[in-house]
Amino acid sequence: MKSYSYIAQDARHKQVKGVINAENEAEFHQKIKEKGLLLKDYSEGASGDAKSMYKFNTKELAFCCRQLSAMLTSGLTLVKAIDILTKEQENPKARAIWQDIYENVQKGESFSSTLESHAGSFPDFLISMVGAGETSGALDIIMQRMSDHYAKENKLKNTIKSAMVYPIILLVVCIAVVILLFTKIMPTFIDMYDDPSQMPALTKILSHISDFLIGYWWLCIAVVVGLFFAITYALKMPDFRLKVDRMLIKGPMWGPLITMIYTGRFSRTLSNLYSSGIPMVECLKRSSRILGNSYVDKKFEDVVDEVKQGESLSAAITRADIFEPMFCSVVYVGEEAGALDSILEKTSEYYEEESDSAVQRLVSLVEPVLLIFMGLIIGLVVVGIYPALYGAFESIENE
Question: pLDDT tier at 47 (50, 70, 90 boundaries)?
């Protein structure tokens, strides 16, 4: 299927832009005619559909949901709200997607089904929530919840990015220092030895490493690039990805911190879905998928099966052994009190605050490891070159 970007004129003589997927030009022209548009210009894009052309990030989703919520609450119709939102889009690809949504909703299609036709651009979670909002007649409230949800998701991502700046800089400096020591500093002191056989064992080892880095630097780069692509490919294999994802939440130091982050995201997502009237089984499926962890997804297959058979949610997730016991106890209290959605909402706020602290603690584990590694390398080099340095000083004194 091909994608066609077009410029046309509608029945009110207004210029519109958009993207249409079609097998060929004849089908494209037929779809333009069905839309009631007068075609002015068009161009064929790359193969593939418009769904993969542009993917909205969490910041954009928070903005769109907040704008729609404000306009719907103030009394504007959905069609008019989408029209205004379309004009506010600065990115041409994003504007083309919202223009297509506007035209389809104007024709009478539901908002959720139109979003679903652009499933590659919008997350399944948002599409489900919009569908629930249309069914319950509370789309403005749902949009506000989605705005809060994606604003918090964006805040967490920014927190992680900000926290990782210093470790990344430290890692780059560490690698640069190691390369400088072995390619510039070591050769200078090794040349001080008249007889290489007199070098201590450690100095010989460091000398070989230095020679290898200088003579075969291209091989080192090839190995690093090869490892990168090998790991990327391996992560696409289900079995390997399952083991990695399990290690993430079962690790001795980082496991509890990552579990804390997962718990905050899961409780907020489940609260939003369940309070919108979506069945619990569907809530659990979508809430686990949003975590992006294959091990959690596999565990939740058993949780969903048990809930289908009439088991309580608290008992099912306790046996899954994913979340910490306190969260399972809170879910149990919510079920017994008949206020699971409100309990989950309050719990999500607590775990989101803890998640911020967990991110900081997680990053703080990396910093000392890098510092220790750099210190060990520098220490080894100093120990290795010290005999040569000491011998040079003795020669100067004798002269």
Answer: very low
Q: What is the pTM of this model?
A: 0.68
CATH of 58-152, one of 3.30.70.100, 1.25.40.10, 1.20.81.30, 3.40.1360.10: 1.20.81.30
CATH number for 165-399 (one of 1.20.81.30, 1.10.260.40, 1.20.120.430, 3.40.50.2000): it is 1.20.81.30
What are the residue boundaries of the structural domains of the chain, listed by start?
2-48, 58-152, 165-399
Give the separation between CA 3 and CA 31, rounded to whole angstroms.
12
Burial (CB < 10 A; 0-12, 13-18, 19+), residue 227, is: exposed
What pLDDT is attached to residue 230? 92
The pLDDT confidence band at residue 26, using thresholds 50, 70 and 90, is: confident
* Residue in 86, 158, 100, 126 with CA at minimum distance from that of residue 286: 126
CA–CA gap between residue 311 and residue 308 (Å, rounded) = 7
CA 283 to chain centre: 21
Instruction: Output the CA–CA distances (angstroms, integers) from residue 120 to 48, 61, 92, 152, in the order listed.
Output: 11, 13, 17, 22
Stretch 2-26: mean pLDDT, rounded? 71
* Equal fold, 2-48 vs 58-152: no
* Class in CATH terms, 2-48: alpha beta
Q: Report, as an integer, the average pLDDT of 238-258.
A: 84
